[in-house]
Design goal:
The chain is mainly alpha-helical. 40% of the residues lie in helices and 5% in strands. It contains 19 helices and 8 strands. Strands 3-5-7-6 form a 4-stranded antiparallel beta sheet. A two-stranded antiparallel sheet has the order 1-2. Helix 7 runs antiparallel to helix 8, helix 8 packs antiparallel against helix 9 and helix 9 packs antiparallel against helix 10. The N terminus is likely disordered.
Length: 513
């Protein structure tokens, strides 16, 4: 029995060590060929490598020394959360995510046990897998709908991966279109393949748009086989996220609306999805349903989140909410009751302890990872509509969520003014939508991604509940043009890619260019 991932992923230039790290955690198959008569000759057989890709999206794979903060998509969400203003890590604990929180990872780009290597290699591995599947399209046999289901997902995975690479290794899209981003590969790669230079931000987003549009086209009319798969509605949800970053408000609105309609999901009262640990909840569009034999144990999202469960969170590295954000919530907002606890004695004058994320079963270290909820799509549509001066529609979509959070919720605000800093208050409708987004998606989206696209700066203060050693004193977090949150490219890429020069192609190691 050979590891299926050996054939589904050979890695990219400079990323060859990743494949062997992933092989041990992915499913096995007796197939031994990527040719038209082997692994992908049949569209149903092609689901095997696809399932391997999705398994790696919640598996721990990183080299020793980093694996406990590397568990796929959810680990990169947590990375992006602790880099912002609302998601407080109370202490260093065992060190996991602490250096992301302090912006002290960029100079570790020569190590394979730090964040640069981790993120770059994960997304490029998923791209490599997608490219192998797409390359086999013409040889696939089976019903057209089945082929579309496989190929559509491959396009979506590639679009999603490039989108996240662009948000991590370059400044935000708008205003930085001509700046360097990352290499683009659309064909299978093997050891010895000639590496490519960094493409511009615009070129990468052109590829992202082409891929996600193709995914939407192919997945339309197909039937999803598992919640971890990207179906038509999720592809539209990813497209809506892309629209927000590109400030294409019409695309964001239309994609979000289509995602809502196609998903069949509904906004739920908070008490109907406590713990955010079940993909079976009626508001979940996309996530990983994790069995006990697939649990990462300590190397898992809930290990770092559930302070009353088994794991790192009960060792002092508590995850807490910005108190200013919390105290701005309506008194009858049900999220106050169920998601955070201001009375927890462990708060110690810092933020307020989170109770939003819980293990489903602490004995087996299990809990599903949720990567997209329908509530996000309503808030995305509301923001886009507000930007388009469609305020009545914006308030309707905002209320679709808020009516399930605050009894009798109404909003009379108007306008699109945002403060220079995330903590500045303007009283606009757009600010209200963004604030509710901050609260609703706390811990599950990646706050720094929103801060970047909104071109706001932020500060951390004791009033918010931030510990003194995490307040980024004398760091330019208040400057939206800062390179603080643009990650460095791993040295392994320069070592294996002759088309990239570390002297000219490396991102700034410091906070400014």
């Amino acid at each position: 029995m050979k590891k299926i991932f050996k054939y589904a992923c050979f890695g990219l230039i400079g990323c060859m060590t990743l494949t062997s790290c992933l092989e041990s955690s992915l499913e096995t198959s007796p197939t031994d060929s990527m040719s038209g008569t082997g692994l992908l000759a049949n569209s149903n057989a092609a689901l095997v490598p696809l399932n391997g890709v999705y398994r790696s999206m919640y598996a721990t794979w990183s080299p020793q020394g980093n694996e406990h903060q590397s568990f796929g998509i959810s680990s990169y969400v947590m990375m992006a959360e602790v880099m912002g203003d609302d998601f407080i890590q109370a202490a260093q604990g065992s060190g996991w995510f602490w250096y992301d929180c302090l912006y002290m990872v960029k100079d570790r780009y020569t190590s394979t046990a730090w964040r640069s290597y981790d993120v770059w290699n994960a997304y490029y591995t998923w791209i490599s897998n997608a490219n192998y599947i797409l390359n086999a399209e013409e040889t696939m046999e089976g019903d057209a709908a089945d082929v579309n289901y496989v190929i559509g997902q491959a396009y979506a995975i590639r679009a999603y991966s490039y989108f996240m690479l662009a948000q991590t290794f370059a400044r935000t899209y708008k205003g930085h279109e001509s700046e360097p981003c990352c290499p683009i590969y659309t064909e299978p790669t093997v050891a010895g393949t000639q590496g490519k230079p960094r493409a511009t931000v615009q070129e990468v987003y052109d590829q992202i748009l082409a891929d996600i549009d193709k995914a939407v086209e192919l997945l339309d009319g197909t039937t999803r086989q598992h919640v971890s798969h990207i179906d038509y509605s999720v592809a539209q949800g990813i497209r809506a996220r892309i629209g927000l970053v590109m400030e294409d408000w019409t695309m964001a609105k239309e994609a979000a609306k289509e995602a809502i309609a196609a998903s069949g999901c509904e906004v739920l009262p908070v008490e109907d999805f406590l713990g955010l640990n079940s993909t079976a909840a009626a508001n979940v569009m996309w996530g990983a349903a994790i069995n006990s034999d697939q649990s990462g144990m300590y190397a898992s999202f809930f290990s770092h989140m559930d302070q009353d469960g088994t794991g790192y969170a009960n060792g002092g590295a508590y995850k807490e909410i910005n108190k200013v954000l919390y105290n701005g919530m309506a008194q009858n907002d049900t999220r106050r009751q169920y998601w955070w606890d201001p009375t927890d004695s462990r708060n110690e004058d810092l933020g307020y302890m989170q109770t939003k994320f819980r293990f489903a079963d602490t004995q087996t270290w299990t809990g599903d990872y949720i990567w997209m909820r329908v509530e996000e799509m309503y808030l995305t549509a509301a923001e886009a509509e507000c930007r388009l001066s469609e305020e009545a529609a914006a308030k309707e979509d905002l209320s679709a969520v808020m009516s399930q959070r605050v009894e009798g919720y109404t909003c009379t605000k108007t306008g699109t003014a945002l403060g220079k800093l995330t903590s500045d208050v303007t009283g606009s409708l757009l600010e209200e939508i963004i604030t509710q987004r901050r609260i609703e998606l706390w811990g599950e989206f990646g706050r720094i991604y929103d801060i970047r696209r909104l071109k706001q700066g932020f500060v951390r203060t004791s009033e918010m509940g931030w510990p003194l050693n995490a307040q980024l004193t004398n760091r330019p977090s208040d400057n939206p043009e800062s390179y603080m949150w643009v990650l460095t490219i791993p040295q392994t890429e320069f070592d294996g890619n002759a088309s990239m020069n570390p002297a000219t192609d490396q991102n700034p190691i410091g906070d400014t260019k």
